[in-house]
Design goal:
The chain is 66% helix and 3% strand. By secondary structure, the protein is mainly alpha-helical.
């Protein structure tokens, strides 16, 4: 039976492997699965395999890695669980889209089973968001400022629509990440946003919180206009500290919050 998950978006194959791949090295018998996973991972990170590309057949891949086909299936299952590979029934195994949403799925599982993960998520987000705001204050263009103003205006119009408001909140923060000019930070924050949207839906239940968010976003825009890195970092820190307090006082237990974040 074909199994699929509604949370995964199948990447359209961009290229099928027709010739043997010469980049594989036969792995040692010990730690076979770990070494094979590492080889496939390196081929993806070096762009030898790209998102949507079909891997060699199971027989070819097992021969090139020097592993048994059962061991290879373990490798494929492990990388599929991480969102790196996708097995399509009757078609073969493909590199996934490698989108932040897909790669964040294992982190969502962590949030479901680890009560401390939510707190850790906020700590990571705080460090990155404050740094992004400080960097954006040094580099932000007038066009990027106009975009932030427009996003906030959309959020005000969506004040009574929680999901639309949260989408605007995500877009507001992403525009700041882009304005920072740091592509690695942007990629990291995109991954976190796949999880953070769920926590935003919890905090945005209150209209007072949504109104406060609009005020805090206006303050952030103001310090960015002044090109004040320290002020931008402080405004972002204050904004996220407020979000954390709201979530902690939401009345939900850590377990319930974690479950909602993973849903």
């Amino acid at each position: 039976m074909e199994a699929s998950s509604p949370r995964y978006t199948w990447a359209k194959p961009v290229a099928e492997t027709r010739k043997p791949v010469k980049d594989f090295v036969t792995v040692e018998r010990r730690k076979v699965t770990t070494q094979a996973i590492d080889q496939i991972r390196r081929l993806i990170t070096s762009h030898r395999f790209v998102p949507g590309q079909k891997l060699p057949s199971e027989r070819e891949l097992a021969e090139q890695l020097g592993v048994s086909r059962p061991s290879l299936r373990e490798v494929i299952l492990a990388l599929s669980a991480l969102g790196v590979l996708e097995s399509q029934h009757g078609r073969g195994t493909f590199v996934s889209s490698l989108s932040p949403e897909v790669l964040a799925l294992p982190l969502a599982l962590i949030l479901e089973v680890n009560q401390d993960a939510l707190h850790n998520l906020f700590e990571v987000r705080l460090m990155l968001e404050v740094g992004a705001a400080e960097s954006a204050a040094r580099k932000i263009s007038d066009a990027a400022l106009d975009e932030l103003i427009e996003i906030r205006a959309r959020a005000r119009r969506a004040l009574d629509d929680i999901e639309a408001f949260v989408d605007c909140d995500v877009a507001f923060h992403r525009a700041i990440h882009e304005a920072s000019g740091n592509r690695l930070l942007l990629a990291l924050m995109d991954s976190l946003s796949a999880l953070g949207r769920e926590s935003r839906l919890i905090t945005a239940r209150s209209r007072i919180v949504r109104e406060t968010t609009l005020k805090e976003h206006q303050s952030i825009i103001g310090v960015l206009k002044r090109r004040d890195p320290a002020g931008a970092g402080a405004a972002m820190r204050q904004h996220l500290a407020h979000v954390a307090r709201v979530l902690e006082s939401s009345g939900l237990t850590p377990e319930a919050i974690a479950l909602e974040l993973g849903s």
